[in-house]
Amino acid sequence: MSTFDEKLKLFAVDLYKINAIKFGEYKTKVGLITPVYCDLRVIVSYPQLLNTLAELIIEYIKKMQTFDIVCGVPYTALPIATVVSVKNSIPMVMRRKEAKDYGTKKLIEGQFKEGDNCLIVEDVVTSGSSILETVKDLKNSGIKCSDAIVLLNREQGGEKLLSENGIKMHALLSLTQLMQFLKEANCVNESVVEKVKIYLQNTQVDPNVLIKNNRLKLSFLERLNFAKNPVTRRLLQVMCDKKTTLCVAADVTSTTDLLNLAEQTGPHICLFKTHIDIVEDFHPNFLKHLKEIAERHNFIIFEDRKFADIGNTVQLQYSKSMYQISSWANLVTAHSVMGKGILEGIQQSEGLKDRGVFLLAEASCAGSLTDQSYVDATLKLAKQYPDLITGIVCQNPLLLEEPGVIQLTPGVHLESVGDRLAQQYNSPETVVLEKGADVAVVGRAITKSADPAAEAVKYKEVLWAAYEKRIASQ
Ligand code: 5IU
Question: Which residues bind substrate (predicted)?
Answer without folding.
Answer: 251, 273, 364, 423, 443-444
